[in-house]
């Protein structure tokens, strides 16, 4: 049964402490905690200290096992004369770590990565019954993650206001719809099939509801990144600022029904550009591609961290260097490494191909 949050008044971590005086001095003098209470006055057995968002109960009669306390510091080496691992007199292990808010990107390890959607496809089950397909199993060295996500049964989504510490994140709706809301971007809206959003780093957002059989492709960099809840912000916010920058990026909501088509970088095809290239100052490009003219495309390659294709509709045949002819149907995807030769041999007239590139690619070579 869910607890009534109004019934719980405070919380503390209990640490057994047979040597109360020495331990209290260590937490106050060495680590900078402050004393909130101590009792009884004539012969103390309990001291309560607080600091850095936590509250500790140092208790002579407690029977808890030794704990580990990790403190994140601007300069860890200045806290305890260069020692990064300490032990309090009561046995509590203290770990001093750098409070590094900078995003750490692993070096990219490129590879040719093909993923097929067929009867043998392995789907994992994530939270709230969502089904996941891993589209880049090797993560390109930990640099990128791409998932094909399917929600069989729609309705309200048990989500909360949160944000991601991330370099790049795309959500592309393949089927169905989802109701979303974002910080400083107006009220809730419906993301329909063919639409996508760029989620800039640290923008607060929430998923409210979705349809049955909704499918999205989610692509992010780096593969492992932190997600944080924001318990203070309520969405939608009163402010609307579509030009606001979040770590140098603007929020993008690309709608298929109002998009225009233009020539793609490969002859015989056209694309609708999501605008993500401009919103990220060229960090990434996201386009939907379809056939336009009866024109044979010649061999091409690229130099980039990532070129990712996902077939939204129809099918396309590629000639891949060293592998020969490969046909890709709806739900199939491929990552093409730099300087890897490929040719778009043929495609069905109903082809729609999602292209994601980092950095943005504007021409072949």
Please outline what is shown here:
The protein has 365 residues and is mainly β.
Structure description:
This protein has 2 helices and 32 strands. The chain has helices spanning 20-30, 276-279, and strands at 13-16, 34-39, 46-51, 54-59, 68-73, 85-87, 93-98, 113-115, 124-125, 131-134, 145-151, 155-156, 162-165, 168-175, 177-182, 189-192, 196-198, 205-210, 214-221, 226-229, 245-246, 249-250, 252-254, 262-263, 269-273, 285-291, 306-313, 315-320, 324-329, 333-335, 342-347, 352-358. The strands form 8 sheets. It has a 7-stranded antiparallel beta sheet with strand order 8-30-27-32-26-25-24. A 7-stranded antiparallel beta sheet has the order 9-10-11-19-14-17-23, with no helix packed on it. A hairpin with a 2-residue loop joins strand 21 (245-246) and strand 22 (249-250). The N and C termini lie far apart (62 Å).
| Percent of residues in beta strands | 35-45%
- Average predicted local confidence, pLDDT: 92
CATH fold label of the largest domain: Jelly Rolls
Strand tally is: 32
Provide the CATH top-level class of the largest domain: Mainly Beta
Spatial order of the strands in the main sheet?
A: 8-30-27-32-26-25-24
CATH superfamily of the largest domain: Jelly Rolls
Give the structural class: mainly beta
Percent helix among the residues? under 10%
Q: Biggest sheet: strands, sense, closure?
A: 7 strands, antiparallel
Task: Note poorly predicted spans.
Answer: none
State the end-to-end CA separation.
Answer: 62 Å
